[in-house]
Structure formats: C-alpha cells, structure tokens
Design brief:
The chain is built from ten helices and 14 strands. By secondary structure, it is an alpha/beta fold. The protein folds into two domains: 3-117 and 282-292, ATPase, nucleotide binding domain (Nucleotidyltransferase, domain 5), CATH 3.30.420.40; 125-281, Nucleotidyltransferase, domain 5 (2-Layer Sandwich), CATH 3.30.420. Strands 3-2-1-4-7 form a five-stranded mixed sheet. A five-stranded mixed sheet has the order 10-9-8-13-14. The protein has a two-stranded antiparallel ribbon with strand order 5-6. Strand 5 (73-75) and strand 6 (80-83) form a beta hairpin. The model has no long low-confidence stretch (mean pLDDT 93). This is Glucokinase.
C-alpha cells in the first residue's frame, strides 16, 4: 500500500494526516497556526509534518508525496501561495521551500476548499456529474467539479462568499452576513456575552428562543440567496456542504430546502433531493490533499 501526507493549512490551525490510496486517515497531527510572520507560519507546517513522520515510522519508499491545501489564491503550476487574508504568505513559494527542508520531490498544492471538494468528489463517486462543494465556516466559499474537472476560471472561481446579497440593511457580501463570525455577532445580540459563538446561537435556537429562531431564519435566507445563484447558474447534480457551521448544525439543511422551494421553478427542484452535509467530518481537507498526490495530473 502506498501513502501520502495531506496538509490542511488555515489561519487557526495546521492539520496533517497520513493517507492511504483509499482515502483512509491512518494517523494525523494538528498544531495551532503561528501567523506572526511568514517564517513562523512555515515552521509551524514543517513541525506538524515532521511530527507526523516521526510518529508513523513510515518507510520513505512508501511515501509518494505531500499534498498541501492553502487558503486563498494559489499558483498550482509554480507551487506558490499567491494571496491569503488569514496567513502571511503573499507570493510565498510553498512547494520549493517544503522540498528544500523535507527532501521530498513530489509535492502538490491547491486551494484548501478545492482540496476538500476533491475528497467529497471521490467519496460521492460523481464521475460524470456536476458537483458543487460549499464550505460554511469562518468564511464561505465553494469549488465546482464537472465530469471530473475543476471549473477554475481565471483562478478565483467559487468565491461565493463575495456575492452581494440582499439584507434588511441593504446589500452585503454573503460571507459578511452568513459565515461563522457574523453568526457569532448575532449570538451576542441575544445573550449579551462577548464570548458567544455561532454554536451559542444554534443552542438557543434548539431551545426554542424566539430571537434565536428569527436570527437563524435570517441566516438561512441569506445563505439560500447564494445557493440559489449557484443553482440558477450551474444547475448542479449535487451540492455538498462542509465547514463547521454546516456540519455541526444539520438542521440547516432542512431549513435551507424549505427556503429554496419558495424561489425555485419546478424544473429546478430536483436539487432539493441532492443537498447533503459532508460525511467526512473535519478531515476533508487532509483527505483531499493526500489523495491529490496520487493524481498524476497534479489536480483534476
């Protein structure tokens, strides 16, 4: 059996896992992100990978390479992290630096959401269909795979969090009103607690608090606008949701279906039976990055 290492880099943590060709996570490690400088961030990644290598005791000939998921815009061909808003790696040569330190030749890089989408595509086996993966977490983004190929555009495709949607206070980017930080702000409105988070809002929702119900329904309305734009533009066969907000609050799916039915034409409603929450848990990023290593095209 051959193995790879999948690395999922974010603004709060770095996760890396030892992945086999079937997409199974054999071992994994995690470390808080050190975002003070580009070098502290890079060293954090190195430490996480080296700890994994040390604990797994894998013979080097069985390790086929490393896949790295990085937030923001990525130059896959040249292995460069071009732009991120949560780690200090503007135009950072990630692949060359990793090769230099780790002495591993085969290293692939892609956007972190694309890596997660790749894992979902493999898991759902949607070889000839169009799938959209949507992450609802600290931010909101998506990746599109059609018949086995990513739709990348000029390099920034899938950024649905930037779509302006209608709110009670005018137009705003979807991410600003429906991602985790916005939900945390909503939670603080109803419990006057500076430590309130998105999960606090949903806790009150499940308890039947009227204000929480109103705010969650508002969130659903905003998210539905973004999803309906995706549906109208792409008419996907399936949409899979990931990210902490979506995965830890499965009620979102039923509420979203109810809201989408209002706007959808009959010909569009086939999608309502093809909305899913990821079954891979929080490991999509490292699984997708690891599996990408076994794809000789350096990304589908």
């Amino acid at each position: 059996m051959n193995y790879s290492i999948g690395v999922d880099i974010g603004g709060t943590k770095v996760a890396c896992g030892l992945i086999n060709e079937n997409g199974d996570v054999i071992d994994q490690k995690m470390a808080p992100s050190q975002t003070e400088t580009r070098e502290t961030m890079f060293q954090c990644v190195i430490d996480c990978i080296e700890e994994l290598l040390s604990s797994s005791s894998l013979p080097k000939e069985q390790l086929k390479g490393i896949g790295v998921g990085v937030p923001g815009k990525v130059d896959r061909d040249n292995g460069i992290a071009v732009f991120q808003n949560n780690i200090p790696w503007k135009n950072f040569p990630v692949v060359d630096r990793l090769k230099e330190v780790l002495d591993i030749d085969h290293i692939v890089i892609d956007n972190d959401v694309y890596m997660a989408a790749y894992a979902e595509w493999k898991d759902n086996q949607l070889i000839d269909e169009l799938m959209v993966y949507v992450t609802v977490s600290t931010g909101i983004s998506s990746a599109i795979i059609d018949a086995g190929s990513f739709i990348r555009g000029a390099g920034f495709a899938g950024e649905i969090g930037l779509i302006p949607i209608c709110t009670d206070h005018g137009r705003a980017p979807l991410e600003k009103v429906a991602a985790g930080p916005a939900l945390s702000q909503k939670a603080k409105k109803i419990c006057v607690d500076e430590s309130a988070e998105a999960k606090t809002l949903f806790k009150h929702y499940y308890e039947g608090q009227p204000e929480a119900k109103q705010l969650v329904n508002q969130f659903i309305d905003h998210l539905a606008q973004g999803i309906y734009m995706i549906n109208s533009l792409l008419d996907p066969h399936r949409i899979v949701f990931g990210g902490s907000v979506a995965m830890y609050n499965p009620v979102i799916l039923d509420l979203l279906k109810q809201r989408l039915q209002i706007d959808m034409l009959e010909e569009q409603k086939h999608l309502l039976d093809q909305l899913y929450v990821s079954q891979l848990g929080s490991n999509q990023g490292i699984i997708g990055a690891g599996l990408m290593v076994f794809d000789n095209s350096n990304g589908i």
